[in-house]
Amino acid sequence: MIAHVFKNLSDQRMKTILQKMYSEVPRVMKMLAPEGWKKSKYHKQIQEQQQHAHSEYLTDILAGKQQSSCVNKQLMDEVTFINKYALNHEEYHSFQYPGIDQDEQEVFFIFLLLLCDISEEGDLLYQQTNQSDIIHYYLAYVDVEKIALEIAGEQEHIPKDDIEYFLFSDFTIDWDEMERFNCLQLIFKILQAEKYIWHHIDDELQHIAICYHEDHYLAYSALPFYEKSLRQHEIIKTIQQYVSKYQASWLDPYDFDAIIALFNRHKINYAILAYVHCYQAFPVGYPYQVYHYFDGYSKE
After folding, report:
1. Torsion of the alpha carbons at 110, 115, 116 and 122, rounded to the nearest 10
2. Is residue 287 assigned to a domain?
3. Would strands 122-127 and 133-138 be described as parallel, antiparallel, or unpaired?
4. Of 46, 137, 150, 298, which has the fewest CB atoms closer than 10 Å, so is most exposed?
């Protein structure tokens, strides 16, 4: 009988994956920015977010000036106050990764964000050689951050002695879907070489399943009728919002079989497409089935 074991991916396994991803940075850079990284929309997005973060920091600093009980601080003009008490743009980002104008590190960082996206949509499965059990590995964001900073230190992009003080920047990337698809393929090729397969979990279907569980508990709760009805209405509205993204006509929000069929027909997931392109097979958990969200692995 096959046993399923769930654990975080070890540092060594994580580092193997991330080092292979780092080696792909020149290819990714050329793929995303054939005219040079500084001209790419991704570099521009990162620059804008770095500038916005520093601007918000300065706003907070100036708010502190207004609230200060020190008369001298209150009498200072804003420019003088900022020059005296605030970090400049470079100083503010000096312990954030990637730093200012670190082209290769910016590429590595957004490449890592895609790996985190894959992890958020499920976990990695590793079949033991004795075929007796399957290990489900979860890639924790904090572990990805730790190992990535370690690699950056080894490549001398950040000081090794200061690695513990660095943090990932809080960036979001507006991807071109085809470029994202191509980058996802590279990641899945790395995972395939390391003999992992992907267990995909759709976050929208998972949320709908959670809504059903909540609705079931509400039916037996001691809440007043009005509160119960209001919450049940909110649950139905939430489910309908997900369904309406893929079908304009009405669909029974409690017909999960019909919702599953709808998602299989109309939801496009580029990570699944990239996986199929690499593995020539669907990931575990796709096509979607009802038991994936209610009965775990009992029918696998």
Report:
1. 150
2. no
3. antiparallel
4. 298
What per-residue string of b and e applies to 72-102 under the rule 16 or more CB within 10 Å gives b?
ebeebeeeebbeeebeeeeebbeebbbbeeb
pLDDT at 253 over 50: yes
Q: How would you classify the pairing of strands 167-168 and 96-97?
A: parallel
pTM: predicted TM-score of the whole model, two decimal places? 0.88
pLDDT, tens digit, for every residue of 104-151? 999 999 999 999 999 999 889 886 656 668 888 999 999 999 999 999
Cβ-Cβ contacts under 8 Å for 58 (sequence gap 6 or more): 82, 86
Q: Answer whether residue 95 is part of any domain.
A: yes
CA dist 161 and 159 (Å) reads: 5
Residue 10 belongs to what domain range? 3-200
Closest CA relative to residue 294, chosen from 247, 250, 260: 260
- The encoded tokens of residue 21 equal 């991803």
Assess if residue 138 is contained within a domain. yes
**Structural domains in the chain (count):** 1
Could you give phi then psi for residue 285, rounded to 5 degrees?
Answer: 95, 0
Q: Read off the tokens for 40.
A: 């790419």
For residue 77, tell me if it sits in a domain.
yes
Determine the residue type at 167: L
